[in-house]
Amino acid sequence: MLEAGPALAAGNSVILKPSEKSPLTAIRLGQLAMEAGMPAGVLNVLPGFGHTVGKALALHMDVDTLVFTGSTKIAKQLMIYAGESNMKRVWLEAGGKSPNIVFADAPDLDAAAEAAASAIAFNQGEVCTAGSRLLVEASIKDAFVEKVAQQLQNWQPGHPLDPDTQVGAVVDQQQLDTVLTYIEKGAQGGATMVCGGKRVMAETGGLFVEPTVFDNVNNQMPIAREEIFGPVLSVITFNSAEEAVAIANDTDYGLAAAVWTSNISKAHKTAKALRTGMVWINHYDGGDMTAPFGGYKQSGNGRDKSLHAFEKYTEVKATWIAL
Question: Among all residues, which ones are annotated catalytic?
Answer without folding.
Answer: 93, 128
